Amino acid sequence: MPGGIGAHANWMVTFDLGEIKATHFSGATVNHYSFSGSYDRVTQSGNDNGSVGIIYIDGVLAKASNIVYNNDPAYDMSITNIPNTARFLTLVITDGNDSSDHDDAAFINPVLNIH
Question: What's the CATH code of the domain at 52?
Fold first, then answer.
């Protein structure tokens, strides 16, 4: 069964890559990071308002999904080459510029890799 990080729009969480590296990978040489995972709606009933998944690296837009509706397939949010100088990774769930009713969504199987 897939896991994920989900929330109701509008929501965001920021990860400190420097702290993650220092706490869990001390002494490791980082050539670059990568992120794998997908973005999908998790509300399956009621209003079909869209939502958008966004990833920022150090406050700069790195990837954004299309507006995702209930019956749409998951949107690939993988980023293959995040610079080793990157400090912050931010995951965002927005309401797709419509009502935030029924805008529950998730980053499915999110994985941060250190290369």
Answer: 2.60.120.1060
